[in-house]
From TrEMBL, chain A:
It comes from Kuraishia capsulata CBS 1993. GO terms for cellular component: mitochondrial small ribosomal subunit. The keyword Coiled coil applies. The keyword Aminoacyl-tRNA synthetase does not apply. InterPro entries: NA-bd_OB-fold, Ribosomal_uS17. CDD domains: Ribosomal_uS17. This is Uncharacterized protein. GO terms for biological process: translation. GO terms for molecular function: structural constituent of ribosome. Residues 160-187 form a coiled coil. Keywords: Coiled coil, Ribonucleoprotein, Ribosomal protein. Belongs to the universal ribosomal protein uS17 family.
TrEMBL record, chain B:
Belongs to the universal ribosomal protein uS15 family. Transmembrane segments: none annotated. Gene3D superfamilies: S15/NS1, RNA-binding (1.10.287.10). This is 37S ribosomal protein S28, mitochondrial. Keywords: Ribonucleoprotein, Ribosomal protein.
Length: 242, 296
C-alpha cells in the first residue's frame, strides 16, 4: 500500500532534537456555508539532519511510529524558504554593520572638519570675498581666493553677483521689459509689410515656397527669434533699428 | 488477576532500559521483576525531565531577547540619528544654516550700502551697523536652533533623516521600510515620554498601537521582499522574533525590559520565587565546584 504523503509548511523548528512541526492544509467542503474551506492539522515530523528551517515547504511521508506523537518523516524539501531567510539574515547582518561603520566614520569626519565657530567663519569668508571682488589681486590675495574656492568647492564666482540690492534687481527688470517692448514694436512694423517680412525670413535661410506655406504666427515667431539673436550689423543691413 | 497477567507479560519481554535487574536466586516472583522495571522506567523518565527542565530554565534566562519596542540597545543607526540632531548648526523649521547665513549677510550689506548712499562712507557708522547686525544674528541663531525647539520639530528632523536613509530611490516616502523607520523614530520619542510619565496610559496605548502597526508593515515586507525585510530589521535593531511574536504592551513586558527600573510590575508567587532561588543556588554551587577543580 502506498504510504501516506502530505505537503506542508514547517511552523516550528529547533525546539526538539531531530523533530519539526509541519502544518498541513486540507480542503473540505463545508455544507453549512456551501464553500470550500481549509482544515489544518499539525504533525510532528522526524528530521534526521536538523536541516529544515521555519517557513520551508516540505513533503512528509508516513513511517513506523518513532515516538508517541511522531509517525512521519521529511521526504523532500520542496522550497527552502526558511533556509533562504536564514541566509538573508546572515547577509543583512554583515551588510548593515559595514554600512553603519562607513556612515559613522563619514559623520565623524564631517563634524571634526567643521570649525568650532562655523557661523562666524562663514561670515568672515563672505566679507573677504566682498572686499576682493572687482579688484586687481596681489599674489597673497590670489592665494586666499584659491583657498576659499577649494573650501567651498567653487570653480568660479567672477560671473556671479555676490549680493544684489532690491533696486538693482528692479532696474534690471525694467531694462529687460524696455527691450522687450522695443522688439515687439519693431516686429509689428515688419509683419505689417509683407515685403519686409519676406526679406527678413529669407535672411534666416528659408526659401520663398516655404515662406508662403507658413502660417502667420509661425512666421512671426521665427522673425522674433531672429531679431533677438541677430547682431546690430545684420540688423542695420536690413534697415532695422532696435 | 488482570494486573498479574500484565506483569507476567512484561517479564517475558527483554529489558531495554539498560538497567540490570538482579536475578532472584530462588523463588522467583513476577512482582520483584515488575518493581525493578518500574524503578528503571522512572529513572529514565526523571532523567528526561531533568534535561528538559534545564533546557527550559536556560531558555527563560536567555539574554539575547530583543526588546520589541526599542530594539537592541545602542543601535548604531539610532545613535547616529541622535548625534545628527545634537549638531550645533542644525536648525528647526526646515531652515538650512548656509541659507540663513547668506540672508543675514545680505541684510547687513543692504544696511551698509544704504548708509553709504545717504551719508557717504563712514568707518564709525559702519562698525556700529556691523555690531548691531551681529546682535541680530545671535538672536536669530538662538530662535532657530534645534536645541531650543520643541519635540515636534526634533521628531520632524529625525523623521526626515530616517526617510532619506531608508528610501529605495530619492523621494521615496511610502515604501514599507521607510514607513517602519518613521514609526521607529516616533516610537522612540514616545517611549522617552512614557519612561518619564508612567501614569500617562494614553501614551502607553499609543506606543502599543505604533509598535503593532510597525509589526504589521514589516510582516508584509517579509512576504513581499524578504531580503529588504532582513536588511530593514537589522538596521532598526529588531529581530525576526520581535516582529512576528504577539506583542501586548503588558506588565510582563515592562518588568522584563525594566521600563521603569525598580518598579515591580508582576508579583511573583512564592513558589516561583523559591524556584528561582534554587536555580541561583545550584548555579553558584556549580561555579564553586568548577573553581575548586581548577585550583586542584
Amino acid at each position: 500500500m502506498a504510504r501516506q504523503n502530505f505537503v506542508g509548511y514547517v511552523i516550528s523548528q529547533g525546539k526538539m532534537d531531530k523533530t519539526i512541526k509541519v502544518r498541513v492544509l486540507q480542503k473540505y467542503y463545508d455544507a453549512k456555508v456551501h464553500k470550500d474551506l481549509f482544515k489544518r492539522k499539525d504533525f510532528l515530523v522526524h528530521d534526521e539532519g536538523n536541516i529544515c528551517k521555519e517557513g520551508d515547504l516540505v513533503r512528509i511521508e508516513a513511517t513506523r511510529p518513532l515516538s508517541s506523537r511522531k509517525f512521519f518523516a521529511v521526504a523532500e524539501i520542496k522550497r527552502n524558504i526558511g533556509q533562504q531567510f536564514a541566509k538573508y539574515a546572515e547577509e543583512a547582518k554583515q551588510r548593515v554593520s559595514e554600512e553603519e561603520q562607513l556612515k559613522t566614520r563619514e559623520f565623524l569626519e564631517r563634524t571634526q572638519l567643521k570649525d568650532n565657530d562655523q557661523q562666524l567663519v562663514f561670515l568672515g569668508d563672505l566679507r573677504t570675498v566682498a572686499s576682493l571682488k572687482g579688484k586687481e589681486l596681489t599674489p597673497e590675495e590670489q592665494e586666499t581666493v584659491s583657498n576659499l574656492k577649494k573650501k567651498y568647492m567653487i570653480q568660479t564666482w567672477d560671473d556671479q553677483q555676490l549680493f544684489q540690492m532690491e533696486f538693482e534687481r528692479l532696474e534690471e527688470k525694467v531694462q529687460d521689459l524696455l527691450q522687450d517692448y522695443k522688439l515687439t514694436q519693431t516686429l509689428q512694423s515688419i509683419i505689417a509689410s509683407p515685403d519686409k517680412s519676406a526679406e527678413v525670413l529669407q535672411r534666416t535661410g528659408l526659401s520663398g515656397e516655404e515662406i508662403e506655406k507658413m502660417r502667420r504666427n509661425v512666421r512671426k515667431n521665427i522673425i522674433r527669434k531672429f531679431l533677438k539673436k541677430a547682431d546690430d550689423a545684420t540688423l542695420l543691413q536690413l534697415g532695422i533699428q532696435l | 488477576m488482570i494486573a498479574l497477567r500484565i506483569f507476567a507479560q512484561t517479564s517475558l519481554r527483554p529489558l531495554s532500559t539498560g538497567v540490570k535487574v538482579q536475578a532472584a536466586p530462588f523463588s522467583t516472583s513476577t512482582f520483584q521483576y515488575a518493581s525493578a522495571l518500574k524503578t528503571a522506567k522512572r529513572a529514565k523518565a526523571m532523567k528526561i525531565k531533568q534535561k528538559n527542565e534545564m533546557k527550559q530554565s536556560q531558555k527563560a534566562m536567555r539574554t539575547d531577547k530583543v526588546d520589541p519596542v526599542l530594539g537592541k540597545a545602542e543601535n548604531p543607526f539610532l545613535v547616529r540619528l541622535k548625534a545628527e540632531l545634537a549638531e550645533p548648526e542644525v536648525l528647526s523649521k526646515g531652515f538650512e544654516t548656509s541659507d540663513v547665513q547668506k540672508l543675514l549677510f545680505g541684510a547687513e550689506q543692504a544696511v551698509l550700502v544704504l548708509n553709504e548712499r545717504q551719508m557717504g562712507s563712514n568707518e564709525v557708522i559702519a562698525n556700529k551697523v556691523k555690531l548691531n547686525e551681529q546682535k541680530k544674528r545671535l538672536v536669530i541663531s538662538r530662535v532657530l536652533s534645534m536645541k531650543n525647539s520643541n519635540k515636534v520639530e526634533q521628531t520632524k528632523f529625525a523623521t526626515k533623516l530616517a526617510r532619506e536613509e531608508f528610501a529605495r530611490f530619492p523621494g521615496d516616502t511610502g515604501s514599507s521600510e521607510v514607513q517602519a523607520a518613521i514609526l521607529t523614530v516616533r516610537i522612540h520619542s514616545l517611549m522617552d515620554h512614557v519612561k518619564s510619565n508612567p501614569k500617562d496610559l494614553d501614551a502607553i496605548r499609543d506606543t502599543r498601537m505604533l509598535v503593532q502597526k510597525r509589526q504589521k508593515l514589516l510582516r508584509y515586507l517579509k512576504k513581499e521582499d524578504a531580503q529588504k525585510y532582513f536588511l530593514a530589521i537589522e538596521k532598526l535593531g529588531l529581530s525576526d522574533e520581535a516582529v512576528n511574536n504577539e506583542f501586548n504592551m503588558d506588565r510582563r513586558y515592562m518588568q522584563d525590559f525594566s521600563i521603569w527600573p525598580g518598579r515591580v510590575m508582576v508579583k511573583e508567587s512564592k513558589r516561583d520565587l523559591e524556584e528561582r532561588k534554587l536555580i541561583r543556588r545550584t548555579r553558584k554551587k556549580a561555579v564553586r565546584a568548577a573553581l575548586a577543580s581548577k585550583a586542584v
